Amino acid sequence: MPAHAKGRTVLIGDEAHAVTPDLGRGACEALTDAVESARVLTAAPDVPTALRAYDPVRRPAAQRLVRAARLMNRMAHARRLAGLRNAALRTAPALGGPPA
Question: Are 41 and 34 in contact (CB under 8 A)?
């Protein structure tokens, strides 16, 4: 999509950057979007100006998130990495991760 904002409308959360749940960042990114949109709305003289300022700040971060989630999804589901993934998950409890 060319922009997350147009005129008086802005896409936030999953509407702007729907990703696989592999990173567990969906709600966090929606909150970050909300905080940034509130920041630009209070700093600008009008809504369209504010949203033009919002887009170049949040869209690059959202694009990085989408790429990272896609990579994590591919790694998690790659058959050739299954042994490595399973070994890493077996050691996670020893490292303070969630129990097996």
Answer: no
